């Protein structure tokens, strides 16, 4: 019996043994290669926060400040257009209205200029395909004249303002309810001013990705015509990268994760069989590679796998939504009307901000909503208009 066990142990521990191969692969991958390669990846479990978070946060702030200055110079050099061409008096109905909600923040970052300059540049680049797109600024600063960046942008884009300078302050109005009311105002004014088919409501620190208009073109004209998407209450174009992992209480993510393992398990087994000269598939090895690939994808970060979908608009994913957050929200005209009616009947407060309020409607009103993956905007605003923080971090 002991002799038989020793023989079995000897077979397992020979260098040619699959057990030794796979054990070595696991140790080298998770103990050496992945930590070395991924220690600077912000959204990976291998990220060395203690080493990198402070310098990376400072570098991001410095770069973002430079981008703010570049956006300021962009508009200072830009020729002022004929205002009649950008007004809301045109008789045709826009396919897409991009409404930028903005409030006065720190002047040195020029968040709204970054967002507006990027949309302006991408629309120019898009050309004839985006002829039915328009941009509207919605200034919700309590005293609109205080917002310096909007004064510059008013020469290039039509604008609406929520002027409350003559109003007595409401003591019951907390900052979360004010933000919701501002959102309702901007969405309502977007529908009244342009009557668009779709409204993309963007916060003033959500910079669009380069491919936003080709992807939206594909989604609006092809994907959103499907019955289960046509009546959605809204589509989110951004979800925080730190919340995009597979280990998450969302059934669709778990199914996606299992599907990844089921696909890569046999593929990696075939590669292993070819490299070692072993014939065919071995189910224990298939299961090993399935678990290996699932663990590696989760630890490196699902966010980085999602980036591969940017190769083509057809690869973008549209999946059921989660509650956080609202930097970029797409509404059809009918769904915008429904959302307005719902939001006017809700009161926001600490712990029940507008993103959670919108998400709560899915359950209470029997609505559906979806998120587009990967993100179509970058959230650059480390200085929040709601939560004061003198030393912001990327995480």
UniProtKB/TrEMBL annotation:
Entry keywords, A to Z: Membrane, Transmembrane, Transmembrane helix
Sequence intervals crossing the membrane: 20-42, 254-275, 281-301
GO biological process, one term: GPI anchor biosynthetic process
One Gene Ontology cellular component: Golgi membrane
Molecular function as annotated in GO: glycosyltransferase activity
Identification of the protein by name: Post-GPI attachment to proteins GalNAc transferase 4
């Amino acid at each position: 019996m002991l002799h038989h066990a020793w023989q079995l142990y000897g077979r397992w521990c020979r260098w040619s043994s699959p057990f030794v191969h796979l054990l070595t692969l696991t140790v080298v991958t998770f103990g050496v290669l992945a930590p070395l390669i991924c220690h600077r990846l912000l959204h990976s479990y291998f990220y060395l926060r203690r080493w990198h978070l402070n310098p990376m946060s400072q570098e991001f702030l410095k770069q973002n400040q430079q981008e703010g200055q570049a956006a300021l110079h962009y508009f200072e050099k830009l020729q002022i257009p004929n205002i009649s061409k950008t007004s809301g008096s045109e008789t045709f109905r826009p396919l897409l209205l991009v409404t930028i909600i903005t409030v006065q923040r720190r002047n040195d970052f020029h968040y709204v200029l970054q967002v507006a300059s990027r949309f302006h540049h991408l629309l120019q680049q898009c050309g004839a395909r985006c002829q039915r797109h328009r941009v509207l600024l919605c200034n919700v600063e309590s005293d609109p004249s205080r917002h310096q960046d909007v004064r510059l942008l008013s020469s290039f884009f039509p604008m609406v303002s929520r002027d409350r300078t003559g109003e007595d302050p409401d003591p019951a109005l907390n900052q979360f309810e004010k933000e919701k009311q501002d959102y309702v105002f901007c969405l309502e004014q977007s529908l009244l001013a342009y009557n668009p088919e779709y409204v993309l409501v963007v916060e003033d620190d959500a910079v669009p990705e380069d491919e936003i208009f080709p992807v939206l073109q594909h989604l609006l004209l092809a994907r959103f015509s499907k019955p289960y998407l046509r009546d959605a209450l809204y589509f989110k174009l951004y979800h925080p990268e730190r919340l995009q992992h597979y280990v998450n209480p969302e059934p669709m993510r778990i199914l996606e994760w299992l599907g990844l393992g089921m696909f890569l398990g046999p593929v990696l087994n075939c590669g292993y069989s070819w490299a070692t000269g072993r014939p065919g598939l071995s189910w224990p090895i298939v299961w090993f590679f399935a678990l290996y690939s699932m663990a590696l994808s989760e630890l490196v970060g699902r966010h980085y796998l999602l980036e591969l979908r940017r190769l083509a608009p057809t690869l973008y994913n549209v999946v059921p939504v989660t509650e956080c957050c609202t930097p970029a929200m797409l509404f059809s005209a009918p769904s915008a009307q429904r959302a307005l009616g719902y939001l006017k009947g809700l009161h926001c407060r600490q712990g029940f901000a507008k993103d959670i309020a919108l998400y709560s409607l899915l359950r209470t009103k029997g609505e559906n909503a979806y998120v587009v993956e990967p993100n179509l905007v970058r959230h650059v605003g480390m200085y929040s208009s709601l939560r004061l923080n003198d030393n912001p971090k990327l995480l």
